[in-house]
């Protein structure tokens, strides 16, 4: 059966409209944890990256080691916190659309089998994508090397084409597993096998579906972040003027990163407005993305929907 792109989009919209309050109840606390994590860790992480750029091309080993230690520390904090908040948000927003489970409390705060399976699936997916990129990068380097031997002027073009091919493979792979989390929720497994089977011969239709779903997500984040980009514009102009001079690029990039740090700092003047905008945008886009994945899973598997979750589906049938 061909994946019905427009029906799936309509069903996603209908479900979001029908269950907006339920989704808000399920997501407000996991989203709060995720955004609080970002405001806790992102500012010092950006500061560390800016400090690394300011060290120049030949930094003192001790200074470089200290900065790299800070980068590693805050990266680990983000990874550890995300390992809790992201699976929790995914499970919270998928329980109803996939299994019909209703939330009895006005918040969702639990970390059990569903969250652990989603975390395992997320880690395995990330490792597989990293492996594809590493193997593809080696293949691209070989192609560029051979092209340089045969026809040196063609080497840059060959390298660019190889990189483009890697990106296509990664995109194809991600589309084949775009219903991984709902598959995990539905089957109570990591979900790789059933997700891979469900998306067979559906990649182009799924691409169209996610492009349509991505439009409101991009608009929401654009509206949330747009009012705060004014401080970046002078730094971006300096970055553009740096051209291909690596030292000049590094010097121009440091203020851009510092601007990001100031944006995430609680001491910044725009912190309250930015925090509220980021929180609302994260909540809305998390709901859209996860509901879309759940709807896609149900359409691909053609399984009977849970009675309560099917209300939104009937609106779009």
Mean pLDDT, as a whole number?
89
Shape estimate: globular
Oligomer: single chain
User: What is the H/E string?
Assistant: HHHHHHHHHHHH
Distance between the termini: 16 Å
The main sheet comes to: none
Given the helix and strand composition, which structural class is it?
A: mainly alpha
Number of domains: 1
The helix tally amounts to 12
Q: Give Rg in angstroms.
A: 22 Å
Number of strands: 0
> What fraction of the residues are assigned to beta strands by DSSP?
under 5%
- pLDDT under 50 segments (min length 5)? 304-317
Estimate the helix proportion, in percent: over 70%
Please characterize this protein's 3D structure:
The chain is mainly alpha-helical and 317 residues long. The chain has one domain (5-112, 202-316). It is built from 12 helices and no strands. It has helices spanning 5-18, 20-54, 61-99, 113-150, 155-176, 180-187, 192-198, 203-225, 233-241, 246-264, 271-301, 310-316. Helix 1 (5-18) crosses helix 12 (310-316) and helix 6 crosses helix 11 (271-301). The longest helix has 39 residues, at 61-99. It is globular, with a radius of gyration of 22 Å. Mean pLDDT is 89; it is low at 304-317.
């Amino acid at each position: 059966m061909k994946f019905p792109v427009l029906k799936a989009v309509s069903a996603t919209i209908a479900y979001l409209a029908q269950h907006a309050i339920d989704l808000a109840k399920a997501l407000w606390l996991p989203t709060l944890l995720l955004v609080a994590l970002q405001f806790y860790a992102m500012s010092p992480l950006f500061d560390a990256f800016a400090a690394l750029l300011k060290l120049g091309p030949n930094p003192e080993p001790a200074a470089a080691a200290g900065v790299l230690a800070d980068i590693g520390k805050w990266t680990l904090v983000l990874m550890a916190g995300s390992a809790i908040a992201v699976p929790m948000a995914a499970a919270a927003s998928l329980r109803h659309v996939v299994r019909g489970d209703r939330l009895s409390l006005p918040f969702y705060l639990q970390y059990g089998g569903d969250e652990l399976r989603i975390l395992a699936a997320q880690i395995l997916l990330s490792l597989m994508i990293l492996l594809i990129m590493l193997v593809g990068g080696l293949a691209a380097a070989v192609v560029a090397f051979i092209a340089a031997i045969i026809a040196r002027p063609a080497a840059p073009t060959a390298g660019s084409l190889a990189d483009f091919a890697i990106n296509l493979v990664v995109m194809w792979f991600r589309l084949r597993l775009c219903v991984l989390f709902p598959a995990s929720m539905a089957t109570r497994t990591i979900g790789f096998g059933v997700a891979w089977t469900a998306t067979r011969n559906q990649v182009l239709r799924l691409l169209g579906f996610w492009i349509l779903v991505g439009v409101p997500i991009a608009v929401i984040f654009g509206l949330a972040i747009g009012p705060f980009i004014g401080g970046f514009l002078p730094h971006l102009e300096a970055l553009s003027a740096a051209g291909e001079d690596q030292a000049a690029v590094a010097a121009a990039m440091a203020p851009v990163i510092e601007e990001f740090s100031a944006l995430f700092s609680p001491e910044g003047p725009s912190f309250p407005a930015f925090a509220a905008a980021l929180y609302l945008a994260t909540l809305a886009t998390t709901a859209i993305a996860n509901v879309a994945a759940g709807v896609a899973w149900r359409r691909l598997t053609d399984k009977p929907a849970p009675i309560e979750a099917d209300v939104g589906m009937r609106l779009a049938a």
